[in-house]
């Protein structure tokens, strides 16, 4: 199945700004599975959950939307439950929910007689101070890469995902970082690109997401398995935080964006 490709495409549709590297992996044909991609962010809603079915690797790269589901997202901290509405086939949106740092959000999806659930806790926000740039020489070409600069809070584990668009075009890389070796330090982290070249004067939008540990682990496994990292693992679906055999992920995360001009 083109599971990774599907999850990446759905994440773009969800406007998660998730810059995932699109890799087709030779997987054996298996029975279709449900893919759930959902989010709650610190930005104002509505928020979206997308449902679709997987297809076999040999099939066309068209992923069937899953309609008719009953979906709720509960702010377990506040005791508020929002029932989502299907606005287009397979796309469901919230109505009254707000993303609040520190709150726990429970996603419940009921479809075809099965119930799937996922819990995600939104971390406290960390501010992106600035975006600077470095140049690296490779194959006779000077590559320009952005550098995110921010203060990591001391004494608590923090997990980050970064997204990057260049002239309104998403960069298809996975950018993740955790503070296991840099807790409480001031971070200057380059975002190295292997599939796009930034030119002086290009307009960039850099997003910094504060994600929880389960979502970080999901993208870390995806990064390793697709080769968008330092290690390539045998093909396997990333560990999801969604129960009952569904694929995908549900993330409650903070968002801090910066618009910059490359120099």
Task: Give a verbal description of the structure.
This protein has 263 residues and is mostly beta strands. The protein has a domain at 3-123 and 235-252: Immunoglobulin-like (Sandwich), CATH 2.60.40. The protein is built from two helices and 16 strands. The chain has helices spanning 3-13, 213-226, and strands at 34-41, 48-53, 70-75, 80-83, 85-88, 91-93, 104-111, 114-121, 130-138, 141-151, 159-166, 169-170, 175-178, 186-190, 203-211, 247-261. The termini are far apart. Residues 15-27 and 229-235 have low confidence and may be disordered.
Summarize the structure.
This protein is mainly beta. It contains two helices and 16 strands.
The CATH topology name of the domain at 3-123 and 235-252 reads: Immunoglobulin-like
Class based on secondary structure composition and strand pairing: mainly beta
* Second rung of CATH, namely the architecture of the domain at 3-123 and 235-252: Sandwich
Distinct helical segment count? 2
CATH first level of the domain at 3-123 and 235-252: which class?
Mainly Beta
- What proportion of the residues form beta strands (DSSP E)? 35-45%
User: Quick one: overall form?
Assistant: globular
Sketch the topology as an H/E string, one letter per element.
Answer: HEEEEEEEEEEEEEEEHE
Low-pLDDT regions: 15-27, 229-235
Number of strands: 16
Q: How far apart, in Å, are the first and last alpha carbons?
A: 41 Å
């Amino acid at each position: 199945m083109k599971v990774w490709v599907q999850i990446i495409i759905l994440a773009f549709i969800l406007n998660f700004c998730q810059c995932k590297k699109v890799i087709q992996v030779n997987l054996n044909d298996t029975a279709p599975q449900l893919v759930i991609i959902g989010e709650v962010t610190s930005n104002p809603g509505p928020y979206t959950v997308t449902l679709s079915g997987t297809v076999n690797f040999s099939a066309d790269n068209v992923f069937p939307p899953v309609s008719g589901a009953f979906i709720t997202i509960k702010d377990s901290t506040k005791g508020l439950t929002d029932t989502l509405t299907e606005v287009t086939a397979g796309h469901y949106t919230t109505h009254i929910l707000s993303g609040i740092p520190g709150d726990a959000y429970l996603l419940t999806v009921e479809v075809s007689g099965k119930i799937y659930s996922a819990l995600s806790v939104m971390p406290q926000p960390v501010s992106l101070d600035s975006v600077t740039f470095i140049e690296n020489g490779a194959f006779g070409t000077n590559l320009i890469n952005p550098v995110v600069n921010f203060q990591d809070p001391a004494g608590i584990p923090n997990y980050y995902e970064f997204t990057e668009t260049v002239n309104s075009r998403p960069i298809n890389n996975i950018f993740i970082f955790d503070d296991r070796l840099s807790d409480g330090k001031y971070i200057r982290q380059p975002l190295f690109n292997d599939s796009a070249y930034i030119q002086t004067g290009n307009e960039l939008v850099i997003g910094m997401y504060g994600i929880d540990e389960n979502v970080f682990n999901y993208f870390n496994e995806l990064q390793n398995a697709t080769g968008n990292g330092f290690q390539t693992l045998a093909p396997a679906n990333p560990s999801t935080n969604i129960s009952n055999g569904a694929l995908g992920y549900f993330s409650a995360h903070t968002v801090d964006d910066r618009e910059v001009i490359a120099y």
